[in-house]
Design a protein that fits this description.
elongated, single chain, 11 strands, six-stranded mixed beta sheet
Length: 332
């Protein structure tokens, strides 16, 4: 197996120059860097992460905390984080935390410290004061997606603005009997997002002089199956039927479309449906949505961490969103 000394001899430079050229830290002439990279490639030399850590005081690893691994939004954000960090030569250590207090305590008290990560990214998790304090005690860059959080640097999507945009789109098409499929109490307790989306929905209705009908507000769990059950309740419950449905996630909106089909209700002729996320299945179902670009959210979080580690520029803190009309909404 080739060593750094072998690379130095082949390139005709010192081992210190090889280290600077391969790590990207320190000044090296472009011609010299190219010669070192060529020598390393020809010898099949790969920098030891352990040796690099000892030399730099860094592990080149970022801890990523997520509440779900099997949900599309979180896995997509994670994909963006992972891709951006890998391009920068960083690994990730993944922590899947649950509402279970003991599991969460181990993550914040033990695992993050034991693994020796250089930074932490927390994806859409409601952190209590004690958990926030423990993260800050690590003394390293911490980026949160979601929020906002009063003491952590946070990349935020304007959840109120997203929900208002979706609701105003339906109102602009002439709808007044608009149903809302939101979060279950358990989901709402764990995250900031559902509460803010419902607030945006209610504020848009209030601005248009439309009262909220409690019978048209149904909870689900941000899955297709959950949206299907909620929409069955709205469309087959015997009460007044809405002319439009705003679901707080694309997966729930897809569930609503499937429920409408089972009831013989045409979308969008008889029922308009809109969601939030930009889910890849949205195009297949012709779903109108407010795309919040979760892949780019992950990439932006990685860029923010790298900037704090001195390896890139600081990205904007506000995350973009845009309404994409694919035809599942129509005028009355």
């Amino acid at each position: 197996m080739a060593s750094i000394d072998d690379v130095a001899r082949l390139a005709g430079v010192s081992t210190a120059t090889v280290s600077r050229a391969l790590s990207g830290r320190g000044k090296v002439l472009n011609e010299t860097r190219a010669r070192v990279l060529g020598a390393a490639d020809s010898l099949g030399y790969v920098v030891s992460s352990r040796a690099s850590s000892l030399a730099s005081g860094r592990t080149r690893t970022v801890g990523v905390i997520v509440p779900y691994l099997d949900r599309w939004f979180f896995s997509t954000v994670l994909s963006g984080v992972s891709s951006a960090l890998m391009r920068a030569g960083f690994d990730i250590t993944l922590y899947n935390i649950t509402p279970d207090r003991e599991t969460r305590r181990h993550v914040f008290d033990t695992f993050l410290r034991r693994q020796g990560v250089d930074a932490v990214i927390a994806v859409s998790i409601r952190l209590d004061d004690d958990e926030t304090r423990r993260l800050l005690e690590l003394g390293m860059p911490i980026i949160a997606i979601g929020g906002p959080h009063p003491t952590l640097e946070t990349l935020t999507v304007d959840e109120l603005g997203i929900a208002r945009l979706a609701t105003e789109h339906l109102i602009g098409l002439g709808h007044r009997d608009i149903a809302y499929i939101g979060a279950t109490a358990e989901f709402d307790e764990e995250f900031h997002v559902p509460t803010n989306r419902r607030r945006g929905f209610e504020e848009a209705l209030a601005d248009a002089g439309i009262p909220v009908d409690p019978s048209l507000v149904v909870a689900a769990d941000f899955t297709i199956a959950g949206g299907l059950r909620a929409a069955h309740q709205l469309l087959g419950g015997g009460g007044p039927r809405p002319t439009a449905v705003f679901a707080a996630s694309d997966e729930m909106a897809i569930g609503a479309i499937l429920a409408a089909r089972e009831h013989g209700i045409r979308v969008p002729e008889d029922l308009s449906v809109i969601g939030i996320d930009g889910h890849e299945l949205g195009e297949i179902f012709g779903l109108t949505t407010v795309d919040q670009f979760p892949l780019q959210q992950g990439e932006r979080a990685a860029a923010a961490v790298l900037a704090q580690l001195g390896e890139g520029e600081v990205p904007p803190a506000d995350l973009p969103f845009v309404l994409t009309d694919r035809g599942s909404t129509a005028s009355l």
